[in-house]
Write a structure and sequence with these properties.
Layout: E1 20-25, H1 30-47, E2 50-55, H2 62-72, E3 77-85, H3 91-108, E4 113-120, H4 123-130, H5 137-154, H6 169-176
Helix pairs in contact: 1-4, 1-5, 2-3
């Protein structure tokens, strides 16, 4: 059951220069991701940002696509959209943990992204979270990316100008695990 708790939402940031976002969508549960994408589009529109969309097979492929696109330098930020619903096996845990961890690693490297991959127990939970008139998690993910872009610009970093070496997820993952050296 979805909570009725009210949460504070930051106003969308004011961005002086144009913003180009890429939504990376895993449409495995297409009605859910359609709702997430609708919310993300509305938020991008409200901020005056453009939003391109690509699709990948599943949630595990989202971080790879974001990493590839980040290295291209064509986008200021990214919106990860997908849905993972618990099933009968532990595959749910792998997909949730690994996709989230990979997106976190990209973010720690300076990639401005909002994580809108729903990880839920039931389809009903996903429907509430994906609905732009409900919890609007797609819009929230787009807003998160926009806020990070604003911070990167404020602090002199432009995610679109980072080098490929700055996106070495494997090196960073090893450092987080204590296996790598700085």
């Amino acid at each position: 059951m979805a909570s009725n708790t009210q949460h504070h939402e930051l106003a969308l940031p004011r961005l002086d220069a144009p913003v180009r976002l890429l939504a990376v969508v895993a449409p495995y549960y297409k009605p859910i991701t359609d709702g997430l994408l609708s919310g993300a589009r509305a938020t991008a529109d409200a901020a005056g940002a453009s939003l391109d969309v690509i699709e990948v097979p599943g949630a595990l492929e989202i971080p790879t696509a974001v990493g590839l696109a980040a290295r291209s330098g064509r986008y200021d930020g990214f919106v990860a959209l997908g849905c993972v619903i618990r099933g009968e096996t532990t595959h749910y845990d792998t997909v949730c943990n690994d996709s989230s961890r990979a997106l976190t690693l990209l973010g720690l490297q300076g990639v401005c992204l909002g994580n809108g991959i729903l990880t839920v127990e039931t389809l009903a939970q996903a429907e509430v979270r994906a609905d732009p008139a409900g919890q609007n998690k797609g819009g929230g993910a787009a807003a998160a990316a926009l806020h990070l872009i604003a911070l990167a610009r404020r602090w002199g970093g432009d995610a679109a100008q980072t080098s490929a070496a700055d996106h070495d997820v494997i090196r960073l993952a090893g450092q987080m695990e204590g296996q790598g050296r700085s």
